UniProtKB/TrEMBL annotation:
Keywords: Hydrolase, Protease. It comes from Effusibacillus consociatus. GO terms for molecular function: peptidase activity. NCBIfam families: spore_YyaC (TIGR02841). The lineage of its organism: Bacteria, Bacillati, Bacillota, Bacilli, Bacillales. This is Spore protease YyaC. It comes from the Bacteria. The gene is yyaC. InterPro entries: Pept_HybD-like_dom_sf, YyaC. GO terms for biological process: proteolysis.
Length: 195
């Protein structure tokens, strides 16, 4: 399945993202615990997309719908990503991971949210060699890549990142809630897969 990409400012963006997520999730995570992994750091404006999504999801998932890793309080970043992945695999049997991260792209793509099947490669935009992660991935293109990436990430507009984070978190929350309501047995299955 190809990657879906849409401008987060479009009025129909949340519903379009939700439909694509439902398509990617439907029946694909059966018998597997769902885990959301938000990658990034609060020390860089552009790279804070993941932790912002994670923190927002914590408030939206008050019933502990599924585990969330990577928040503003406890970010998952280059230094602790491998350790976090090992911990997830120890705690959950064959987890289905939704990975969320910021990325850089072309000028015409800034502000786009991308959803796709398969893992993402965190740190690729800043030449870091980190493990691939995710059964499906959501990325937000926060700024222009290709030159002085660290400087560009540090000088990304926070308002853009926060609006993208809110769109991703709200849409992901509604999608996961909807799937579990449509198949209530999934909640028991989720809980029974925890070690």
């Amino acid at each position: 399945m190809s990657t879906f990409k849409i401008d987060h400012t479009l009025p129909h963006a949340p519903s379009a993202i939700r439909l694509h997520l439902i398509d990617l999730l439907a029946n694909k995570y059966r018998d597997r615990p769902l885990v959301i992994l938000c990658i990034g750091t609060d020390r860089s404006t552009g790279d804070s997309l993941g932790p912002l999504v994670g923190s927002r999801l914590q408030t939206l998932f008050r019933d502990e719908l599924c585990p969330i890793y990577g928040t503003l309080e406890n970010p998952v970043h280059a230094v602790n990503l491998a350790e976090t992945l090992s911990g997830i695999k120890r705690l959950y049997q064959n987890p289905f991971i939704i990975a969320i991260d910021a990325c850089l792209g072309q000028l015409s793509s800034v502000g786009m949210i991308s959803v796709g099947q398969g893992p993402l490669k965190p740190g690729a935009g800043v030449n870091k060699n980190l493990p691939e992660v995710g059964d499906i991935h959501i990325t937000g293109i926060v700024n222009v890549g290709g030159f002085m990436e660290y400087f560009v990430l540090q000088n990304t507009r926070l308002s853009v990142v926060m609006k993208m984070a809110e769109c991703i978190a709200q849409t992901l929350s509604e999608t996961v809630h909807g799937l579990l309501e449509a198949a209530p047995y999934n909640q028991a299955r989720l809980e029974s897969n925890y070690f």
